[in-house]
Task: structure prediction
Amino acid sequence: MADANILVAGFDGQANRVLRTDAAGNLRASGDTVATAQVTIGTSATVIAAARAGRRSITIVNEGTTDVRLGGAAVTSANGLLLAGVKGQALTIETAAAISGIVAAGTQPVSLIENF
Result:
């Protein structure tokens, strides 16, 4: 039998969540799992997080003082979304797509937390 998802609206009608079954057959709501990691970004596009079906959001935190540019696999230091070089600077993106980063020079670690 193919997997089926059920979309459930929150009490306010706005907070939609998908119900699904896990490998053991238990019913779970999307968004009740998190994963964390740290990645060192270099001068070529570096994958920060692979695509993840069901991801609700990802928060990326700059761990230092070097600007990081964020985007897809083709991100460059000239065209990516800026994650400013301020220690603790954070950006949350609602996407299930893969996210990559790049710096103009040197390296810069970033931390992330995914909600899926």
Notes: DSSP finds no helices and eleven strands in the chain.
